[in-house]
């Protein structure tokens, strides 16, 4: 889930949160954006190695992956919201003072060239001082008429969205 992303000339270490089984193909496309812009390519996230481990092993892995990150990018697919480990990652990112941003990826094709239906906002159900986290964290549904144009929209804007998420988090 770790990836270096160029944001306004600054290298940012970001954590990617996504539903692995349903969206790993789409997520791999998004995670490769930094490589396209000359940053270090995203490596396999290692989830396969820990997903069947103990809860503590998974928590330790998430903590290690988040270490040194300034922002968590939640890639929102049709089944992302409400998942145990996605919720845990959102909570941990917020508690660590990381920026949080959501990007809808239902319009990005998977390995069999299919898109999916839009998912619910995964930040619903979290509160910060009686304010819904979904009112604080911004989510983006990339514009475009097909997967390629949506990918281009994400590629052009992800750095700005990350910087914005970090600035928003710094206000809370």
From TrEMBL:
Residue ranges of every copy of the Thoeris protein ThsB TIR-like domain listed in the record: 15-107
Taxon lineage: Bacteria, Pseudomonadati, Pseudomonadota, Gammaproteobacteria, Pseudomonadales
InterPro entries: ThsB__TIR-like_domain, ThsB_TIR-like_sf
Superkingdom, taxonomy of origin: Bacteria
Name of the protein described by the UniProt record: TIR domain-containing protein
């Amino acid at each position: 889930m770790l990836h270096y992303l160029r944001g306004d000339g600054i290298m940012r270490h970001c954590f990617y949160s996504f539903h692995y089984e349903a969206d790993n193909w789409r997520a791999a496309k998004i995670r490769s954006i930094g490589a396209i812009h000359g940053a270090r390519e995203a490596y396999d996230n290692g989830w396969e190695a820990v997903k069947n481990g103990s809860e503590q092993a998974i928590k330790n892995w998430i903590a290690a992956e988040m270490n040194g990150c300034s922002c968590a990018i939640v890639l929102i697919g049709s089944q992302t919201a409400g998942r145990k480990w996605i919720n845990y990652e959102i909570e941990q990112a917020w508690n660590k003072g990381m920026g949080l941003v959501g990007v809808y990826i239902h319009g990005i094709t998977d390995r069999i060239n299919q898109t999916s239906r839009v998912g619910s906002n995964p930040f619903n159900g979290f509160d910060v001082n009686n304010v819904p986290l979904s009112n604080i964290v911004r989510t983006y549904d990339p514009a475009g008429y097909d997967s390629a144009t949506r990918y281009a929209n994400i590629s052009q804007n992800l750095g700005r969205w990350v910087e914005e998420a970090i600035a928003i988090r710094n206000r809370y």
